[in-house]
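If you are new to this repository, start here. Below is one unmodified record pulled from the training split, so you can see the exact layout before writing a loader.
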Amino acid sequence: MNPNEIKELVELLAEKDIAEFELERGDVKVRIKRAGAGVMIAAPADARYAAAAPFSATPVAAAAPPGVAPSPPAPSAVAAEAAEEAGLHMIRSPIVGTFYEAASPGAPPFVKAGDTVTVGQVLCIIEAMKLMNEIESDYAGEVVKKYVSNAQPVEYGQPLFAVRAQ
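And here is the target side for that same chain:
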């Protein structure tokens, strides 16, 4: 992927008002996340493209400047780690997108805390690139906790639900 392709991609995402985008081609991985007017771009694995890019390229996990303490992990990540230690099964997001708890805005949620789920049961929908992806349970048991709110953006691997075996 050359710098011109990256620039065209950024312009297309801005034109279509897409907040987050991730592309992986072979060993090159590009992640673009817009926050207001700014654009954050993850540099591809091949550094020659990052150096030639006409915009600011920063790694996804940048180190904190000297003398500044790194920020603590997100509360949901801490809660998810505690849940795993308590013997709960974590159902995580398989893709980056927007979390929806129901099939449509007025419909009841697919599941809520206290519900019993089976393997293959739809738990939520994650919208990615205008496609609605049904996320199914890979574990049978009782839903103990839901970690995300309706219409919240989610990352790959982010905890969605904690399930206790029955």
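Two things worth knowing about this chain: The first helix runs from residue 3 to 15. Residues 10 and 128 are 17 Å apart (CA to CA).
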